[in-house]
Design goal:
alpha+beta, Ribosomal Protein S5, domain 2, 5-stranded mixed β-sheet, 34% helix
């Protein structure tokens, strides 16, 4: 099996994933998963698509992660891994889609407007 690549995004985070057959290693920006994501919750989020299909020990995954915070990066990586797994085996798509792993979360930060302190907040109005 040759290397399969996929892209996942969430907020400002972008994850580029390269999946090949191996022993189940996940390397993010040249660091192991447990070093890059110290929180077990974020590690769980990343491994969800692999656990759903029961292929945690079957593929080696190399990741380039850029932008955003830890949570956004973890969710971007989850989407990228799910997309790569579907490229490898298209029959897995329905199982991953049912769990919500194939859906791109399109929510982005609303921009700040001029003359206001934040995106939605306004300065107090004074009639006189």
């Amino acid at each position: 099996m040759e290397t399969v690549n996929a892209l996942g995004r969430r907020k400002a985070a972008v994850a580029r994933v390269y999946v090949k057959e191996g022993a189940g290693q996940i390397v993010i920006n040249d660091r192991p998963l447990d070093v890059y994501f110290a929180s077990p919750i974020l590690q769980f989020i990343v491994k969800q698509p692999l656990a759903k299909l029961g292929v945690e020990e079957k593929y080696d995954i190399k990741v380039n992660l850029d932008g955003g915070g830890f949570k956004g990066q973890a969710e971007a990586l989850r989407l990228a891994i799910a997309r790569a797994l579907v490229k490898i085996n298209p029959e897995d798509k329905s199982a991953l889609k049912a769990e919500g792993f194939m859906t791109r979360d399109a929510r982005e930060v609303e921009r700040k407007k001029p003359g206001q302190p934040k995106a939605r907040k306004h300065f107090q109005f004074s009639k006189r």
